[in-house]
Amino acid sequence: MAPLYDKVIKGGMVIDGQMVPRRRADVAIKDGRIARIGKVSSTDGAEVLDAGGMIVAPGFVDLHTHYDCAFFYDPWCSLSGWHGVTSVAIGNCGFGFAPAREGDRDYLMRTLTRVEAIPREVMELSLPWTWESFPEWMDALDRTPKGVNCLTYVPLNPLLVYVMGLDAAKDRDATDEERAEMCRLLKEAMDAGACGWSAQRTAPGSGYDVQRDHDGTPFATDLMSNETALALAAVLADYDHAFIQTLIAQQGDRTGKDPKSADNAKNAVRQHLEDLARVSDSAIILNAITTDSRTPNNHRTALAWMKDARDRGFKIYPQCVTSGGGFTFTFADGWNMYDDAESWRDATMGTTEERIAKLSDPARRAALKADRPKVLPVENVVVLKPYTEKFLPAKNCRLVDAAQVMGYDDPIDLLLDMVAADQGRTLLQTPALNDDEALVPELVTSPFSLWGVSDGGAHQKFLTAGAFTTDGIIKWVREQEIVSLEEAHYRMSTLPAHCAGFKNRGKLVEGAPADVIVYDYENLTLLPDEVAHDLPGGDWRRVQRAEGYRYTIVNGEVTFEDGKCTEATPGRLLRHGEG
Ligand SMILES: [Zn+2]
């Protein structure tokens, strides 16, 4: 007689994601689903996976990624797959590749090159461009082999450009006819199973205007009116599985200047977000909540407002930055995160040679010193690796400290001298997005906060925050004991799955698709980040691996065993939050 089950995960400690205490149990899998959790005999499994001494938990769900292109060359979205993630949402922040006419492709690739540091060649070699409409894009995603499950937002930037044309989308609000057409196309995408829409809405002067389009202009979505956003939100009201992801300045002014007008602006944004939640009748995921020791009330009042809004029935969730240090970067590699300062924005655009020439140009120096990036201050950047002997004393120092030691009045002069001397190769690191570690637990433990922000697939040469799941277990549970392991699994699986409208993924329950991780809690290790030359065409990215994950299982099939990819591609496109 054939065994009852395909797999039995035997003898592990089950944490099911639902915030109930762990329990010792076996997990039986049949036809890609969890058939039974309890006492299961080894002889009932065609295959037995020994989980003795291991935690058995639901695979992690990462709702903030940019693997839109990566799915076509890295089916496991490896920066996430290595860290126990079994489902990802793509199309975040309003960026993506559909809908797109042939003539839009160049623009969309330029944008993703500049904003998310996805090399142009990688896109040229990987994207099959078999689509124009969003449903056709979803069909392409459906067809390509996947090692993790995928759901996709409709990114509003391509949609606005598709309907209005690039110039008009950057110049004026949509007309009634254009708005109606966008809503029609959004509805078509939702009917095909898209999970909602996403948009970066960091208008110039908002205090969060950290990344601009490839030519230095704001995105169409940065300029989109509230009226257009509300019309698009209303489309979602008809769907059970819809949600919105948006980056919007709702924490208040970072600089602390002019608190009254900042307060008014903040309140207007919050009112608008509640309006969006009301007309869409959908969850809204707000990116990205960080702490700033200069203005600790900003994140506190933002989180308090969201709690109050949820108590009034609005499904507004904070996506908090709970992991990672800063961005590691060089000016030679296309650094783009100083876009909030015009002089820096201009100096960091163009080819590598053009950028280095601009940053080295003495005639530009006064402007670069007068107009400084505010979101990620340059003065606090750490010099990881100088290449010119003269600048070796700056190694591992903040620019501001190195400047003092080396006799510079202004740290910007030191930075620009180094850049000129080594042709932009100096390896630098921004301060962590949360400047004071002591404040981060407020984000980690805030009611219904989502942990991250991963940004997996984006900023590939600067960031490895895709590893936030491993980091979260190690840092917040094992080392700092701020949350229980049960809560960590709830926050990184069940809660995001709930926000995304999944019917039964994100938790270990009988009948659910078998997305399961088996790992060694005591020995879970985050390895140092490293450079991997594994992108299509041979270009490199920054990666970070883990040790301690014994098995990662997607829809009942093992995709990683002891950190090694099995090459299995059981992932599915989750249309309508299912599949
Ligand atoms: Zn993003």
> What gap, in angstroms, lies between the N and C termini?
30 Å
The SS-based structural class is: alpha/beta
Task: Report mean pLDDT, rounded to a whole number.
Answer: 94
Strand residues, percent:
15-25%
> What is the number of strand segments?
25
Radius of gyration: 24 Å
Could you describe the largest sheet, including whether it forms a barrel?
Answer: 9 strands, mixed
Q: Helical segment tally?
A: 19
Global outline: globular
Bound molecules: zinc ion
Oligomer: single chain
Which spans of ≥5 residues are poorly predicted at pLDDT below 50?
none
Q: How would you describe what is shown here?
A:
The protein is α/β, with parallel strands linked by helices. 33% of the residues lie in helices and 19% in strands. It is built from 19 helices and 25 strands. Strands 1, 2, 3, 4, 5, 18, 23, 24 and 25 form a 9-stranded mixed β-sheet that branches. The two termini are 30 Å apart. The site of zinc ion (ZN) has 6 residues, from loops.
Compact overview of the structure:
This protein is 33% helix and 19% strand. By secondary structure, the chain is α/β, with parallel strands linked by helices. The model has no long low-confidence stretch (mean pLDDT 94).
Fill in the keyword field for this structure.
579 residues; alpha/beta; nine-stranded mixed β-sheet; 19% strand; globular; binds zinc ion
Task: Set down the secondary structure blueprint.
Blueprint: E1 5-14, E2 23-30, E3 33-38, E4 45-50, E5 55-58, E6 60-62, H1 78-81, E7 85-90, H2 105-116, H3 120-126, H4 134-143, E8 149-152, E9 154-155, H5 156-164, H6 166-169, H7 176-191, E10 196-201, H8 220-223, H9 226-236, E11 243-248, H10 259-280, E12 283-289, H11 296-311, E13 316-320, E14 328-329, H12 342-347, H13 352-360, H14 362-370, E15 382-385, E16 397-398, H15 399-405, H16 411-422, E17 427-429, H17 440-444, H18 468-479, H19 485-499, E18 516-519, E19 525-526, E20 530-532, E21 541-543, E22 546-547, E23 549-554, E24 557-561, E25 564-565
Parallel strand pairs: 1-4, 1-5, 6-7, 7-8, 9-10, 10-11, 11-12, 12-13
Antiparallel strand pairs: 1-2, 2-3, 5-18, 14-17, 15-16, 15-17, 18-23, 19-22, 20-21, 23-24, 24-25
Helix pairs in contact: 5-7, 7-9, 9-10, 13-16, 15-16, 18-19
The structure holds zinc ion.
